[in-house]
Write a structure and sequence with these properties.
Elements (H helix, E strand, L loop, with lengths): L4 H4 L7 H7 L2 H13 L5 H17 L4 E5 L11 E3 L1 E3 L5 E3 L3 H5 E2 L11 H4 L4 E5 L6 E3 L2 E10 L8 H21 L8 E15 H4 L3 H6 L24 H16 L4 E6 L5 E6 L2 E2 H21 L2 E4 L12 E10 L12 H20 L1 H7 L21 E2 L2 H11 L24 H4 L7 E3 L4 E7 L5 H22 L7 H16 L11 H9 L8 H6 L4 H9 L5 H55 L6 H33 L3 H27 L12 H6 L2
Parallel strand pairs: 1-8, 15-16
Antiparallel strand pairs: 1-2, 3-4, 5-6, 6-8, 7-8, 9-11, 9-12, 9-13, 9-14, 10-11, 14-17, 16-17
Bound molecules: adenosine-5'-diphosphate and magnesium ion.
Magnesium ion binds next to loops.
């Protein structure tokens, strides 16, 4: 049956069209003003919106509402209240007030707060974010909200994200005015996150404790075939996958999530989904929903969606590409080179600002994507290295060099780099997007930040990106402020030139996967923060604290709370992995090996009982090898236990995290070697868990 997709799209969203039809005109206008300018929302408007929302929600089958928020985990949280309100005569009405819309009080004291709530208030409250539309899911009206403590400390990811978007707007507007742009009233950042994921069969998944507890396999011998044939990338979709993707698209479309592109990825069983970009806040909310719906739809199809950054050893893990730009309310993308000299100047100023921001805050960008899971990808020749650098492409590089050298740019025979004299070439996407190894690539009219892990919220990297760029825009505006109209082009040229000279070290157009680059980056003085604990240490450095508190993204308390939560999260993740690995090897793998050795030994003695002088060297070889592997595993388990205890016993969290990273992780790697070698010798009917071959190739 053909579906009417335009009708289906956004059918579960309280969107602009619904608001216009449901709200009195003056209320609609007041709400739009709040959404567009962030102005204060009066209670009568809130009441009017609440009534309209409730009516619409009930018409669409909802019985409950929830304040949906994003605590400092990677998940979203919700507590459902029904609309019912007793009238005192045994009857009820369906009720929902402006007050209930605007503010909620979840009993959320168990969410991580990094010590914030202890110092402030026991409970937090949720506040409606009218810039992200409400929607219906599972017969509940979902209201996107920010989550704060009573003293206003942010306890979530949305609050700092909104603050960072504000900071960028403020600084970008200031700079645009100085550049002579008087029309723009608002600048917003835009994001299109490409999401990678794996699909595995649910029955097989349920037999793997490591997948269940950790989201990734901790052991597993390689399958005879991996991704070497590159036959999966963009390959034909198998019927079961195709049907999954179809359902997924429809569920997302109903929620107004513009799922656009879907394809198979490089690794077997790996896929990708990309939506059309939106304002950052909405994109972040949509990405959270997308991850949730991916899992839910997979379950309906008898599969499990793995969002972990590295579910399988030896084949690619999953990331997210964060396509990012800045756009004005007049419809101009500030990272689009444009067609006129004035647009060109604007473009070069904003482009250069991003370059400087990435160089100045490369450590923070790395930190913003740091997690135990993502450490398995970054620098592993499948994802960008842990070194942050920018890819610009040869053409744009030439433009910048000619600015730096005060030379004419003749690359395409048209451009003279006396700023504003002529028009920049149009950077076609094909010319700018060839380098897939770069962590931060210019792709024609946006940057693509490629270091993100697949499971994390995209809020953190965008908070940092927005704020770092806001800071540089602020510095640029300060430099150019007060320059006369006659002098401005010259002053801009000087600023660009100085900035390029000071920050070109961050630009690297070569292959980021090579060892030469690692050495070169070190010579250039770039950060190479390989593991999460090393990176996190820099989170609270004076430079980074100044940035984040200076733009009111975090108070010092909020910053430290996030630092603690990230470290604790790392520690807990590794603790669970260590426990899980010990359990699988001790309780499942070693007993299976014993069972197999028994069979082999019995075979040998049976053979001998029939033909006394027969050779049993095959059996003996198996027994010898399995015995030595079992011994190695037993010793490995002891070491793992001892070192995990040491890590847990550290009194400060940074040393605990570092101990996990430097010692416990290698214990796990050592154990894995023996386990995988033993696994490869066991018959499949004795092996206590499904192999990589079955997990990766059975759908
Ligand atoms: P790919 O990177 O796979 O070649 P595209 O370049 O077509 O794919 O787009 C990737 C993502 O970038 C999509 O989600 C798209 O909507 C998003 N995107 C395009 N323009 C912008 C922009 N100005 N700001 C943010 N994201 C954008
Ligand atoms: Mg991409």
């Amino acid at each position: 049956m053909a579906q009417n997709i335009p009708e289906l799209y956004g059918s579960l969203v309280f969107n602009d069209k619904i608001m216009r039809t449901k709200l009195p005109k003056d209320m609609y206008k007041a709400l739009k003003k709040t959404i567009q300018n962030g102005s204060h929302l009066e209670l009568d408007v809130a009441n009017s919106v609440a009534v309209a929302m409730k009516e619409w929600a009930i018409e669409n089958g909802a019985t409950h509402y929830t304040h949906w928020f994003q605590p400092m985990t990677n998940f979203t949280a919700e507590k459902h209240d029904s609309f019912i309100s007793p009238t005192g005569d045994g009857q009820i009405i369906m009720d929902f007030s402006g007050k209930e819309l605007v503010k909620g009080e979840p009993d959320a004291s168990s969410f991580p707060s990094g010590g914030l709530r202890a110092t402030f208030e026991a409970r937090g409250y949720t506040a409606w974010d009218p810039t992200s539309p409400a929607f219906i899911k599972d017969r509940t009206l979902y209201i996107p909200t920010a989550f704060c403590s009573y003293s206003g400390e942010a306890l979530d990811k949305k609050t700092p994200l909104l603050r960072s978007m504000d900071a960028l707007n403020t600084q970008a507007l200031k700079l645009l005015r100085i550049l002579g742009n008087t029309e723009v009233r608002h600048v917003t950042t835009t994001v299109g996150p490409e999401q990678e994921y794996f699909l595995v069969d649910k029955e097989l998944y349920n037999q793997r404790k490591d997948l269940i507890f950790c989201g990734r396999t901790l052991i597993g011998a390689p399958a005879p075939k991996g991704q070497e044939m590159e036959d999966h990338y963009f390959g034909t979709l198998k019927p079961r996958i195709s049907s999954y993707m179809h359902d997924l698209d429809e569920e997302l479309w109903k929620l107004g999530i513009p799922a656009k592109t879907k394809h198979n990825e490089v690794a077997p069983a790996q896929h990708e989904l990309a939506p059309v970009f939106d304002t950052t806040n909405v994109s972040v909310d949509h990405n959270q929903l997308t991850m949730e719906i991916m899992k839910k739809v997979a379950d309906k199809h008898g599969m499990v969606c793995l969002l972990h950054e590295k579910p399988f050893e030896g084949i690619n893990g999953s990331g997210k590409h964060n396509n990012w730009s800045m756009s004005t309310d007049t419809g101009v993308n500030l990272l689009d080179p444009g067609k006129t000299p004035a647009e060109n100047i604007q473009f070069l100023v904003f482009l250069t600002a991003v370059i400087k921001a990435v160089d100045d805050y490369a450590d923070l960008l790395r930190i913003s994507v740091a997690s135990a899971g993502n450490d398995h990808r970054l620098g592993a020749n499948e994802a960008p290295p842990a070194i942050v650098s920018i890819f610009l492409g040869d053409e744009l590089m030439e433009v910048l060099s000619s600015i730096e050298k005060d030379e004419f740019f003749t690359g395409h025979g048209v451009v003279q780099m006396d700023i504003g004299a002529k028009v920049l070439p149009h950077f076609v996407k094909d010319n700018t997007d060839r380098n897939r190894t770069s962590p931060f690539a210019f792709t024609g009219n946006k940057f693509e930040f490629r270091m993100l892990g697949s499971s994390s919220s995209v809020a953190s990297p965008n908070i940092i990106l927005n704020t770092a760029v806001a800071e540089v825009l602020r510095q640029f505006a300060n430099t150019l402020e007060g320059v006369s109209a006659g002098e401005i082009n010259h002053a801009v040229h000087k600023l660009l030139k100085e900035t390029i000279t000071a920050h070109k070290r961050i630009i690297f157009n070569g292959n980021g996967y090579t060892d030469e680059w690692v050495e070169e980056a070190q010579r250039r003085g770039l950060y190479n923060l390989k593991a999460t604990p090393d990176a996190l240490e820099m989170f609270i450095s004076p430079k980074n604290e100044a940035l984040l508190t200076g733009h009111n993204i975090f108070t010092k308390g909020e910053l430290y709370s996030r630092y603690e939560i990230k470290l604790e999260n790392y520690i807990k993740t590794l603790h669970i992995e260590s426990n899980t690995m010990a359990e699988i090897i001790r309780k499942d793998l070693l007993p299976s090996i014993t069972q197999y050795m028994e069979q082999v030994a019995r075979t040998a003695s049976l053979k001998k009982s029939v033909i006394p002088d027969i050779s049993v060297s095959c059996e003996a070889a198996v027994l010898t090898k399995l015995t030595s592997l079992s011994e190695a595993m037993t010793a490995g388990l002891d070491a793992l236990k001892r070192d995990t205890d040491t890590a847990e016993g550290c009194t400060d969290i940074l040393s605990s995290a570092k101990t996990y990273e430097s010692i416990v992780l290698s214990d796990m790697e050592n154990l894995r070697k023996s386990a995988d070698e033993a696994e490869a010798m066991l018959p499949e009917n004795i092996l206590p868990y499904p192999t990589y071959g079955r997990l990766l190739f059975s759908i």
